[in-house]
Amino acid sequence: MKVNIRILYTDGCDNTPPTIELVKKTASGMGIDIDLETIKVEDQKQAETQKFLGSPTVQVNGLDVDPSARSLKAFGFM
Fold first, then answer.
1. What CATH number does the domain containing 38 carry?
2. Looking at the chain, which runs of residues are DSSP E strands?
3. Are 15 and 23 in contact (CB under 8 A)?
4. Which site in 2, 4, 6, 72 is 20 to 30 Å from 33, CA atoms measured?
5. Three-state SS for 58?
6. What are phi and psi of 25, to 5 degrees?
7. Domain tally for the chain?
8. CA distance 32 to 71
9. Pairing between strand 3-9 and 57-60?
């Protein structure tokens, strides 16, 4: 079974490429088959819909990788 991973980012975020590589390397090292999707967040509406907390945001099977961020509602685009 594949694990669905989404990386949400904004244009020009320097942390996005290394985050993508870290996710790939970690999954590969653990023998986890992933379906990786990258989503460029371009406006406030999309930020709210996608539950975007900052660039980059990493979600695994629809949940933020940071458990403390899962209850936050301060989605935003800057």
1. 3.40.30.10
2. 3-9, 34-40, 57-60, 63-64
3. no
4. 72
5. strand
6. -65, -45
7. 1
8. 26
9. antiparallel
pLDDT band at 13 (very low <50, low <70, confident <90, very high): very high
Give me the count of residues in the chain.
78
B/e letters for 7-34, b = 16+ CB within 10 Å, e = fewer, are: bbbbeeeeebeebbeebeeebeeeeeeb
pLDDT above 80 (res 66):
yes
Residue 52 lies in a domain: yes
User: Are 16 and 56 a contacting pair, CB within 8 Å?
Assistant: yes
3-state secondary structure of 62: coil
User: Does 75 reside within a domain?
Assistant: no
In a 3-state reduction of DSSP, which class is residue 27?
helix
